[in-house]
Amino acid sequence: MLFPASLLALAATLFATSSLGAPQLERRTSPGVSTNQTLINELELAPTGRDRIDLLPNDLDFVYDFNLPPTQQFNSTGKGGSTIAANRKTFPALIGTGSSMTVGFMHPCGMNTPHTHPRGTELNIVVQGALTTAMVLENGVRAVMTNTTLYQMTVFPQGALHMEFNPLCTPTVFIAGFNNEDAGTQQTLDAFVKLPTNVIEAAFGGEQTLPGADIDKFKTMIPANIALGVEECLARCNIPKNK
Fold first, then answer.
1. pLDDT at residue 112, rounded to an integer
2. 91 near 204, Cβ under 8 Å?
3. pTM of the shown model
4. CA within 20 to 30 Å of 145's CA: 14, 112, 230, 242, which one?
């Protein structure tokens, strides 16, 4: 079976300077935040907001420390930076609020690779540095490109394909607010290559120019979702490419 070259070309263009296997940051548990499943169940079943307050007797239960996130499950780390999410599991005080938040720490030339949030709209505001973003809402519409700097915001509607890139030689920090306690994240190419090879081939109109055996090589091109990208930025910032 042959595999479409266009998909390989797309991946090579977006991720030629990306890296795999970036070292994980050390994560420590915040003492004021509980992720106890029993507590989460009780909060979910509480009939009123007052009852939910009573289930959280410690004032620190209402403080989420992004310096000391309670779990690695919802934290993404790569050589291009990291993201830390406060959601209904990592911060149970959010249950019943219909909201969640992520803080992104982007290294110079760091990229948050193309992804979607299947259950929530994202409001993204830069609090340090700058971001270049791209977003496609659905079939048949133009790609929306933005450049945001300090305290400027952009929006990614629920389900829209989007990415963020730090074009600077200094770190960027952004805050992303969501209108769902569990907005979810799906890295697009990572998910796409998990489909059967013949399905991927059909999606590209049956174009057959490369052996299907190369699929395993292609999968190794998919980086951690926080990756280093854009050759021009790497050169300008004197950041060497990964071998």
1. 87
2. no
3. 0.76
4. 242
Report the percentage of the chain scoring pLDDT > 90. Answer: 51
DSSP secondary structure letter of residue 4: -
The token pair at 3 is: 């595999």
Give the residue among 133, 176, 126 at the shortest CA–CA distance from 151: 126
Exposed e or buried b for every residue in 172-189, given b needs 16+ CB within 10 A?
A: bbbbbbbebbbbebebbb
Average pLDDT of the residues in 112-132: 95
* Calpha distance 2→4 (Å, rounded): 7
One-character DSSP codes across 117-181: -TT--EEEEEEES-EEEEEE-STTSPPEEEEE-TT-EEEE-TT-EEEEE--SSS-EEEEEEESST
Residue that is written with structure tokens 């133009």 in the block? 142
- What residue type is assigned to position 111 of the chain? M
Residue 156 has a CB neighbour count (10 Å cut-off) of 24
Which stretches within the chain are classed as H helix? 5-15, 37-45, 49-54, 188-192, 197-203, 215-219, 231-236
The whole-angstrom separation of Cα 228 and Cα 15 is 8
Contact 86, 149 (CB under 8 A): no
Question: In the chain, pLDDT over 70 holds for what percent of residues?
Answer: 70
Report yes or no: 35 and 231 within 8 Å, Cβ to Cβ.
Answer: no
In this prediction, residue 188 carries a pLDDT of 85
- Looking up tokens 């090589």 gives 217
pLDDT in tens, 22-73: 222 222 333 444 457 899 999 999 999 999 999 999 999 999 999 877 665 5
